[in-house]
Amino acid sequence: MPERGRAAGRGLTGRDRVRQDGDVTERPRSASEPVVRVPVGLVVLVGPPAAGKTSFVRELVAGGRIDAGAVVSSDEIRAELFGAAPAGADSDAADARIFEERDRRIAARLAAGRSAVAESTNVTPQARARLLGLAGRFGVPVTVLRFDPEVTDLLRQYTERGRTDLTAADVRAYAAVMSRDAGADRLRAEGAAAVHDVPGRRDGVTPAEAAARFVFG
């Protein structure tokens, strides 16, 4: 499945599992206590459409945990370049232009010694390889934040958001690719320095509460 802009332990309820250098430890904590420190570098969000990536980064910005300029969203770039419902925006040429612009913006951030957050689905190894290669050019670590809700929760969120650019079948397909090709072990094997699952609805955690668990260098 092609990557489109539209398009670690689990279950953080009770006691959080915090992954550091591949190890998992447990400790009790409050919902607002930051438990994950993300170093300066490239942050890659990985998850199907409607998994909560955009809501999460909005809360990071609202809470002052990252600056708005750190978030490089392929959806936003698509809208900037082609408008809300452009003819031809779904072509291969349009995708190439969108992701070239995404890479340019990420490179500018990394070259300046600042973090960049790549907000797109990134569920396929091919999409991640492009980002990992970009991080390698600047010698910065890659932190992957995984969004992997249960399919029932994913479809519920898709319905609630009223998306018209995707069908429920599309969402299921992305979820299947995520399950097959974006496990934590695989992501580390590809070159991620750290992999963290972002809690969500099934954990009883709101986007604001999830964002409060991360501190960015």
UniProtKB/TrEMBL annotation:
Alphabetical list of SUPFAM superfamilies matching this protein: P-loop containing nucleoside triphosphate hydrolases
Extent of the signal sequence: none
Transmembrane domains' residue ranges: none
Bias (Basic and acidic residues): 13-30
Protein's UniProt name: AAA domain-containing protein
Region (Disordered): 1-32
Superkingdom, taxonomy of origin: Bacteria
